[in-house]
Design brief:
By secondary structure, this protein is of the alpha+beta class. The chain has eight helices and seven strands, in the order ααααααααβββββββ. InterPro entries: SH3-like_bac-type, T3SS_Ca_resp_chp_LcrH/SycD, TPR-like_helical_dom_sf, TPR_rpt, Ycf3/AcsC/BcsC/TPR_MFPF.
C-alpha cells in the first residue's frame, strides 16, 4: 500500500511540475511575466530543475528589467549545461544592463592551457569519454589476446598503450574539471549597491562599490561576511546578504 502511495505521489509531483512549466510558458507568451515567474518558481519549489526552466525564468526577469535575478537564473542554467547557446547569448544582453564594468583578466601559461583543455567538456561528459576509452581498451585487449597473427597482435598491443594514455588523460581531465566545479563559487550581487570592504567588519574601509547583477566569486565565509574576488582579480569583503550564490 505504501509503495502505491509513493508512486502516486511521485506521479502527481511530475504532473504538477509539467503543468506548472507549461503554464509558465503560456503566461510568458501572453506577456504576463510576473505570473509566469510565479508559475516557474512553483516548479522549483518541487525540487525540479532544468536548463529550460532556469532559462525561461531568466527571460521573465529580463523582460521585467530585473537584471540580477535574470543573470542569476541564466547562470543556474549554465551550471546545468555550460554549452547552452541560448543562455550564453541572453546572459550577454542582461550583463549589458549592469552598472559595473569589470574587466576579465585572462589566465596565462600552463594553467590556462590546462583549463582550456578540461573546460571543453563538463566532468560528466569526461566521465562518459572515460567509459568509452575503457570499453575500447577492453576490445583491443581481447583482440591482442585472441588473434594469432603477429602483425595484428602488434597493432592491438600498440593500440592498447595509446588508448591507455588517452584513458588516463580523460580521467585526469574529469577529476580536474570536477575539482574546479566544486571549488568555484560564483555569486550574483542582488543589492542595488553594496560596499566591498577591506576587512570583514562595518568599521573597515570601503574599497569599492558593486551594483546589482555583477558576478563575483566567493572565496571565504566569515560570519555574515564573504570574501569575494572579481573577474579582474580584485578582492574584498561583502555582506553576504547582498549577494546570492549560484550553486546554493
Amino acid at each position: 500500500m505504501k509503495k502505491i502511495f509513493y508512486i502516486l505521489l511521485l506521479i502527481s509531483q511530475v504532473f504538477y511540475a509539467q503543468t506548472g512549466f507549461e503554464k509558465g510558458n503560456l503566461l510568458y507568451q501572453n506577456g504576463k511575466y510576473e505570473e509566469a515567474v510565479k508559475a516557474y518558481e512553483s516548479v522549483l519549489a518541487t525540487n525540479k530543475e532544468s536548463v529550460e526552466l532556469y532559462f525561461n525564468l531568466g527571460n521573465c526577469y529580463y523582460k521585467l528589467h530585473q537584471t540580477a535575478p535574470a543573470i542569476y537564473n541564466y547562470e543556474k542554467a549554465l551550471i546545468l549545461d555550460p554549452t547552452d547557446k541560448d543562455a550564453l547569448n541572453n546572459i550577454k544582453f542582461a550583463q549589458k544592463q549592469t552598472i559595473d564594468e569589470i574587466k576579465v583578466v585572462p589566465k596565462v601559461g600552463f594553467a590556462k592551457l590546462l583549463r582550456d583543455f578540461t573546460g571543453i567538456y563538463t566532468f560528466d561528459t569526461w566521465g562518459w569519454i572515460t567509459v568509452g576509452f575503457a570499453f575500447l581498451f577492453l576490445m583491443f585487449f581481447m583482440g591482442y589476446y585472441f588473434y594469432q597473427t603477429v602483425v595484428v597482435k602488434r597493432v592491438f598491443f600498440v593500440g592498447m598503450f595509446v588508448i591507455l594514455l588517452l584513458l588516463v588523460m580523460s580521467i585526469s581531465a574529469g577529476f580536474f574539471e570536477k575539482s574546479h566545479f566544486d571549488n568555484e563559487r560564483p555569486a550574483i550581487v542582488f543589492a542595488e549597491s553594496a560596499d566591498v570592504r577591506s576587512e570583514p567588519q562595518n568599521a573597515s574601509t570601503t574599497t569599492f562599490v558593486l551594483h546589482a547583477g555583477t558576478k563575483v566569486f566567493v572565496e571565504e565565509t566569515l560570519g555574515y561576511w564573504k570574501k569575494i574576488q572579481l573577474t579582474d582579480g580584485t578582492e574584498g569583503w561583502i555582506d553576504s546578504r547582498s549577494i546570492k550564490e549560484v550553486k546554493d
